[in-house]
Amino acid sequence: MLDTATVDRASTFAPTWSGVIRHLHITPRAFLPMRSMPELNLVAGKGIEGDRYMIGREEGYYSSKPEEGRQVTLFEIETLIALKRDAGIDLGPEEHRRNVTTEGAPLTHLVGKQFWLGQVLLEATRLSIPCRHIEEVTGKSIFDPLINRSGLNCKILKGGTIRVGDAVRNA
Amino acid sequence: MAGLPVRGIKTVVEAIEDGGPGIKVYTLCDPDRWELPPFKPGAHIDIYLPGGLVRTYSLCNDPADDKRYVVAVKREADGRGGSIAFHDGVKAGDTLVVSLPRGGLRIDGAHHVTFVAGGIGVTPFLSAADYLARRGGDFTLHIIARGEPPLAAMLAPHRASGHAIIHDTRVSARPTLDALIDTAPQSAMLACCGPLDMLDAFERATQGWPAERVHVERFVAPALPIDPEARPFQLVLARSQREIEVRLGQSMLDALLKAGIDIPASCCGGICGACRIDWLEGTPVHRDRVLSPAERARSLMACVAGSAEERLVVDL
Ligand code: FES
Predict the structure, then answer these.
(1) Measured between beta carbons, which residues in chain A are less than 8 angstroms from residue B31?
(2) Do the beta carbons of residue B268 and residue B303 sit within 8 Å?
(3) Closest ligand 1 atom number to CA of residue B304
(4) Could you say which architecture CATH assigns to the domain A20-170?
(5) If you ran DSSP here, which 8-state letter would residue B102 be given?
(6) What is the C-alpha to C-alpha distance for residues B282 and B308, in angstroms, rounded to an integer?
(7) Which of B36, B109, B168, B277 is most enclosed, with most CB atoms within 10 A?
(8) Which of A30, A32, A129 comes nearest B36 by C-beta?
(9) Could you report the per-residue pLDDT of A31-50, keeping only the tens digit for each?
(10) pTM to 2 decimals?
(11) In total, how many domains does chain B have?
């Protein structure tokens, strides 16, 4: 069992890192291919303009269960590199079906914390869970390799436009 | 079925065109003209028709044409009702839900492909012909038809290039399949789609060919059980006193949703815990990774669990 002191220390410890946005993708409906975008408009408390999980116009696979904490989803480019290195799987940034592909940001460490994506302030709500349908959509056996590293779900606290190349940093 | 997860791809009928005697050609698009999920030459989709029917149709357009799904439907007055529901019930501008594309012909790397189609059986070969023509592939498409061939407009460029040959049985004798196959090079891949007796004759005519170079399109939905031990079973819903069948290759979750029973689901792969239900009698085959042995004594995960017996009773 972890003692409270350890938990407190670890959850307030702010490691130094600096990340960058490498790719941005959206899709208006479940199962449709993701389209690469140079920039995206994030609306506080709602979602991404034009994306399937924008609150109020959901057309995503999980639209029957609107989820406040899934306004925008992030994925580490390092996971794509690891999939290739460890499992020989070529998965492109348009195939993992998360909106923002980051580099240099320790996403799995950010659950419960706030951080900046360019000028947009996010709060990470939980780790994403892979979906079996990603195998049908991509034709690749990636469900198992993606367990526990399938990205990060976030709420948008302060909206704005984000662009490829923007910095990702601690709040 | 409001409130259920999105089970397919939402499309709108952009155009309905005449495809020859008794045939209509439907062009389906995303409502915002977004790209549709990709498909292989010869692939097909399931279409959810008015009245609850689900039917499988070949995609007829070039796979490079990524914003449209084109299907051709021949009205079969004595059929099982799908073509009538389509012809009479679907109008331009309607919304149709379709499945992800499945299947396809393995024609990459073939030196030559000889396609033999009986009438409307040409549909799975049209996307393949466009695909091969675009990439400079070598192929011959034989269409055996009585009178005007189906889908003449789609065939026109392939007739002009000499790749498609129409055998009109009103003006000349019906060619034997042996004769058509004899014209194919030894290294060719052979494919056939048409009425059942033609498929049987084709199988006999190709007995001497290596099996991996012979393709017979039978339009039977391929059952893809995740587990080779999986079998169909009856699911008995104790509280609502209903019985539903879980088909081979189908998940219990899918069978429940199709029966209109709303089960929450998320990962559909046995890890998130969303689709947990309790069971009462029978022998569930658990394939999840969330339940402990103690929990399995009462519950199962409907997205992955099967049944070792013909009957499984659940608390629903
Ligand atoms: S839907 Fe996730 S365990 Fe069944």
Answers:
(1) 29
(2) yes
(3) 4
(4) Beta Barrel (2.40)
(5) B
(6) 8
(7) B36
(8) A32
(9) 899 999 999 999 999 999 99
(10) 0.80
(11) 3
